[in-house]
Design a protein that fits this description.
This protein has 160 residues and is mainly α. The chain has one domain. The protein is built from 5 helices and 2 strands, in the order H-H-H-H-H-E-E. Strands 1-2 form a two-stranded antiparallel sheet. The chain is elongated, with a radius of gyration of 16 Å.
């Protein structure tokens, strides 16, 4: 991502990229599980990175600018992130067993992600784009690029 992008366009594009990886996983999990597993792994790490970016970079800036810390939208987003992480782990357990019968768990994850992403894309990201100066936005993108893989490349309780 480059500093000239807006926060809504950059983060929505990452949502789209993650959605595509998950669709690819679901499409080939019954015919080529090794390939499906690679799609899932990239999706899992990407989603974890996305959440790290939000919780460590975006949310603190929003809270600082608005003063909404304990009872604001970022608190709701953090709670939803915990639900998403739990549902991601449920699907991950099927992937570990190479069991393609995770349709129910995948639907639950997709429902959580869809509702969550809509809130972010229509409320949080546009608000941040208005609240932050161009310099502050550039700092956001710099921090995103500098996020170490060890912050999000975690699988089965260990760093990859």
């Amino acid at each position: 991502m480059i500093a000239t992008q807006s926060i809504p366009s950059a983060f929505a594009a990452d949502h789209d990229r993650l959605d595509e990886l998950f669709v690819n996983f679901r499409t080939c999990k019954r015919t080529d599980y090794a390939r499906a597993k690679e799609f899932f792994k990239e999706f899992k790490f990407g989603l974890q990175r996305h959440i790290v970016w939000e919780e460590s970079i975006l949310f603190p800036r929003f809270e600082h600018k608005t003063g909404m810390v304990k009872h604001g939208p970022t608190e709701v987003m953090r709670l939803e992130h915990r639900i998403i992480a739990d549902r991601l782990e449920e699907v991950h357990q099927f992937v570990q067993r190479q069991d393609p019968n995770s349709d129910h768990e995948e639907r639950l994850l997709l429902e959580s992600l869809s509702e969550h992403n809509q809130k972010e894309e229509h409320v949080l990201y546009p608000a941040l784009d208005r609240l932050l100066s161009d310099e502050e936005k550039a700092d956001v993108f710099t921090e995103m690029e500098q996020t170490p893989e060890s912050a999000y490349k975690v699988c089965c309780g260990r760093h990859e």
